[in-house]
Amino acid sequence: MRILGIDPGSRITGYGLVEKQGNRLIHLDNGAIQTRARDDFPGRLQIIYRELCALIEQFRPDAVAVEQIFVAKNALSALKLGHARGAALLAGVNADLPVHEYTAMQVKSAVVGYGKARKEQVQQMVKTLLNLPEIAQEDASDALAVAICHLHSNPLKERLTAALSRR
Amino acid sequence: MRILGIDPGSRITGYGLVEKQGNRLIHLDNGAIQTRARDDFPGRLQIIYRELCALIEQFRPDAVAVEQIFVAKNALSALKLGHARGAALLAGVNADLPVHEYTAMQVKSAVVGYGKARKEQVQQMVKTLLNLPEIAQEDASDALAVAICHLHSNPLKERLTAALSRR
């Protein structure tokens, strides 16, 4: 099962592609979509949407995993984040992929085994679990973490999907 | 020049289509996209996105106008609104249409002539300007108002577009 994890942001959107083969996690790709250069906001959303669509086209993941957000610094940053997150969710649903949302606590629990783990612990664990040569860029690391969270959380779903795809 | 005005919301997204011929404003369509029935959030965004794409396909507007938002009741409602607004902006930019944003004050000034007009005054003026049989549904009326705002704000741009399309 192959997962596209996304960490949306209005300036930087991190992504990470992880595949699970048996009990092994395999890192396929990660990166950060930069939108700072564009100053028109609709244009920024289009960059996020198009780049994620291109990644889905290239890697053909089975599902998309995005961190669920309940709070933000303030209403204005929440509004901007919401736009970026909307673009990310749309890239998933418009490609007919199931979109799963996980809270930060679920992601930390799945990756580190402790829901209140510090950011650095999560980054270190992502590096270890995926055999990365070094810690990934912050947003990309968060995206890989949510992808790992989905793969760890859904062993039953994964087996079902695998069984159906073998038919 | 034909404008699709949008008033995005996570539960109801209003839309309105207005055309300007010479000095006349012509009402083409208005309505509200309901997403309450769906409880999965990505699915709601997809409904907004797809219905707006279908309207763009059907009416082929020259541009999209959306109200610009700076404040919201709280961070959570701002986050939800941001998602819906992101879907609306994407429907516009993905159809290669220019997307214009106007503040509530700009919309009120353009429609009523007074930036602090009450909601009911705006609704009444939209009805009068477009010769509607009755006041449109609230969100649809707001969408018509932002479309009218764009048409009133851009006489030069409009003449240019018209001149180019006559070539």
Summarize the structure.
2 copies of one chain form a homodimer. With 167 residues, the first copy, chain A, is α/β, with parallel strands linked by helices. In chain A, 52% of the residues lie in helices and 22% in strands.
Task: Describe the 3D structure.
The structure is a homodimer of 167-residue chains. Chain A is an alpha/beta fold and 167 residues long. Chain A has a single domain (2-165), classed as Nucleotidyltransferase, domain 5, CATH 3.30.420.10. Chain A is built from six helices and five strands; from the N terminus they run E-E-E-H-E-H-E-H-H-H-H. Chain A has helices at residues 41-59, 75-94, 104-112, 119-129, 138-153, 155-166; strands at residues 2-7, 12-21, 24-34, 63-67, 99-102. Chain A has a five-stranded mixed sheet. In chain A, strand 4 (63-67), helix 2 and strand 5 (99-102) form a beta-alpha-beta unit. In chain A, helix 1 (41-59) packs parallel to helix 2 (75-94). Chains A and B meet through helix 1 and helix 2 of A and helix 1 and helix 2 of B.
